[in-house]
């Protein structure tokens, strides 16, 4: 992939901070696009995939809509709508909570777990996006990204 200034055809930035912010946004969007393209083969959006992964992590315990919202990578997601699409596809089940009739509980189905197993079998395809980096560089990148988020 060409350097940022070539990709966006912009050679001047206010300073290195400005360039870094633009680079993070551009690269984040590129990564999202690549991940979405991969998930499209499984008829899933990134947000639906995220919900399925959260539910798998619940190890059979139900999750409320609010718990799913808290754990979503994309905080702007309409979780109720996403859960309904997954339910119609047979990947999750939802029911009314016995303790709080206003709350909904969601669990992943066997079909949902099987879909995640198929995706996991090809996870190295997604991970290969960063294969040009060494393990040490990846640890440093993770450190830097965590550090950026800790400022906000």
Descriptive overview:
By secondary structure, this protein is mainly alpha-helical. The chain has 8 helices and 3 strands.
Q: What is the number of helices?
A: 8
Distance between the termini: 29 Å
| Main pleated-sheet profile | 3 strands, antiparallel
Strand arrangement, major sheet: 1-3-2
Helix/strand-derived class? Answer: mainly alpha
Q: Can you give the helix content as a percent range? A: 55-70%
Q: Give the CATH H-level superfamily of the largest domain.
A: Winged helix-like DNA-binding domain superfamily/Winged helix DNA-binding domain
Task: Sum this structure up briefly.
The chain is mainly alpha-helical and 152 residues long. The protein has helices at residues 4-7, 16-40, 46-57, 65-71, 79-88, 110-120, 123-127, 135-150; strands spanning 63-64, 92-96, 104-108.
Topology of helices and strands:
Elements (H helix, E strand, L loop, with lengths): L3 H4 L8 H25 L5 H12 L5 E2 H7 L7 H10 L3 E5 L7 E5 L1 H11 L2 H5 L7 H16 L2
Antiparallel strand pairs: 1-3, 2-3
Keywords:
mainly alpha, 8 helices, Arc Repressor Mutant, subunit A, 3 strands, 152 residues
